[in-house]
Design a protein that fits this description.
- The protein is mainly alpha-helical.
- It folds into 2 domains: 1-46, Orthogonal Bundle (Arc Repressor Mutant, subunit A); 49-181, Tetracycline Repressor, domain 2.
- Helix content is 75%, strand content 0%.
- α1 (6-18) crosses α2, α4 (49-69) runs antiparallel to α5 and α5 (75-88) crosses α9.
Amino acid sequence: MIRKTAKELLADSFRELAQTKAFDKITIKEITDNCGYSPATFYRQFRDKYDLIAWAYSRDLERITEQIAYNEASWRQTLSDAANYYSDHKEYLANLLLHTTGYDAFVRNMTAINYASLKQAVLKSAGTSELDRKTEMLIRLYVFGTVQLSCEWIVGHDQESPQLLAEVYEQALPEPLRQYLY
C-alpha cells in the first residue's frame, strides 16, 4: 500500500478547496482542517500557500518529464502529456492565476521549474554537466514563450485543444535544441 506524505495530503486538500473557492480566500487553517492536520504541520512542510503551489506543480512536472530521463517517452509525448496536464487541471490553475496577486510570482515560479526541467533533459542528452551560454539562452527563450502561452490558454484566451497546444510547443522548439530532445 502506498501512503501519501503530509505534503501530498496538504496539496490534495488545497486542490480540493480550490475547486470551489478562490485561491486568495483559502486559509491555511481551511487547508489543514480539510485534511486533518494542524497549521503547525503545514508550516513544517511549506512556508506559505505559494510554496505549496510551487512544490505541487514542480512534482507534477517532474513526473511528466522524468519519462524522458528513463527513455519511456519521446519529447513529442512529453509535450502532449504537459498539454493534457494543463487541460486536466485547467480550472485549478486558472483559479491560481486569476484569483491571486501572486500571478506574476506563479508565472516566474512556473518558468523557473520548466527551465530547470528542460535544462536537465538537455544536459542528460548531451552527456555533460554544463551547457554553453547560447544553449541556456535558447532554453530560457523557449520556456518563457511556452509558459506565457500556457498561462493564457489556461485562463481562456485561447480555446484550442490540448493537442494543438502540444503541437505548437513542439513547433516552437528552437532548432539547436532539437538534437537533444529528438
